[in-house]
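Exercise 3.2. Students should predict the tertiary structure of the chain below and write it as structure tokens, then compare their answer with the key that follows.

Predict this chain's 3D structure.
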Amino acid sequence: MSESPPGASRQVPADFHEHLAGLAVRGLVRTIDRPIDKDSELHPLARWQFQGGLADADRRAFVFTHVTGAKGERYGMPVVVGALAASPEIYAAGLGVAVEDIGRVWVRAVASPIAPELMTEGVAPCQEVVETGDSLEQADGGLARLPVPVSTPGFDAAPYLTATLCVTRDPESGIQNMGTYRAGLKASNRLGVRMATRLSGAGGYVHWQKYRALGQPMPIAIVVGASPAVMFTGPQKLAIDMDELAVAGGLMGRAIRTVRCKTVDLVVPADAEIVIEGLIDTALLEPEGPFGESHGHVALEDFNMSMQVTAITRRRDAVFVSIVSQVTPSESSVLKKVAYEPMFLEHLRTVLGVRGVTRVVMHEPLSNLRKVIFVQYARGVPRTEVWRGMHGAASLQAQCGKLVIAVSEDIDPENADAIFWSLAYRSNFDEDVLVMGNRAAGHGPKSGRAPTEGTLLIDATLKHDMPPLALPAEAYMTRAKAIWEELDFPRLTPQSPWHGYPLGDWAPEWAAWAEAAVKGDWRAVGDDTFARRRGGIKPETPVREGGPAAME
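Answer key:
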């Protein structure tokens, strides 16, 4: 399929409001008007989309219009969850493309960023309402006015901002960085912010180190809600010296409008919903957490960055945007999966020139994409290419590829049963397994972990011809499915493989016999085999009935 054209012709939402309206037109929004407690009910309700066995196509953006708090608070601002990436279809709508074009749009955006444009006159939508000064210190002011949900009730220590773009600037180069980091409420004018220190890089943490060396606090602006093209850049692992706003411009096909913050020297998307400005202390750290993390465990209390809020600006009709993270699958993992997989595939095919790679799949349920990667190959690819591809997938990003498994194109990498089948019958563990050491432990719970671990590569591709898969051929399974549905039996959800297919070791006469059998002509098959009976001392001599002995 050809790539959708860039820019406005793709109908890329200009802001989050336009995106939400577009989702509603597509029937991808569920509005909840009854009172919902943001501290104990909101995220658990949204979480059931992922823990309740719903297919991707059945997931929706949730709009909560009647949000309350644990102490009886009532908020006039709606909370939206799932509108960024509850499903690949919702993510694709945010870019104005089909799901299958997401990867190509991302590759083009990284290769051809478009610099943002600064507003010099007029009032930016994100600054229609401005709160600064003493108001931020009041118990019911500042952050307390925002309907920030508790993401993991029963474990989280505070409400957390999750759908964030944390904007910081390198004090040496002046290049801004936007990262998605969690930020927990500490007071009406203070947040605890966790900027990761992994080898894969966190621009905000690198900037913090530089400000610390200068003996200065670090300016920061946290954007909550913007055009999806802007929001999508935060979770991606782009080069640390690449301005994500320019990449977002590449995603949209036009420059992003920006505006200068009111109290810090940073620029932010002008059409954002909410912007929280402030300074991060570089002399002291503050305990932060616990908080349910995307690696599937609760991140325990640790010392992280303390942010003093200097201003909160927003649209008059702002909505508060949150994402479901924690155990995967989640909105957080979909955000990464739909962009990571095509980018890994492009790297293997174009940068490394690996032949025969047809697909890259990052395992999502529970393992959170980073740890387990499947690389799918066309039939007959040289084994040298299989291993080059596995090494490439394991080394592209420091946090991705602890376990890489190569499979052939007839294996669905998203079906664990098919994977185990391939491992069981297509791998010789004497020669198809490689373990390498000295991988950084990466994203995961800290309890009892060593700083390094190993990398495991397994070649589970088909290396020689094999007999067909022993299921009825596709035509017969398709016909049987139609009868099943005609009988109004329970709805089927076919899992690959759901029909048999040849794998090379299959003679033409056997195919003819199979065709004869389904036509009732099995006697003809018997006539053929009777003529070819053999046994005993001479191959052409029939075996006597009743035992293996044969007579001349």
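Discussion points: The domain at 7-322 is CATH 2.30.110.10 (Pnp Oxidase; Chain A). Residues 331-351 form the longest helix (21 residues).
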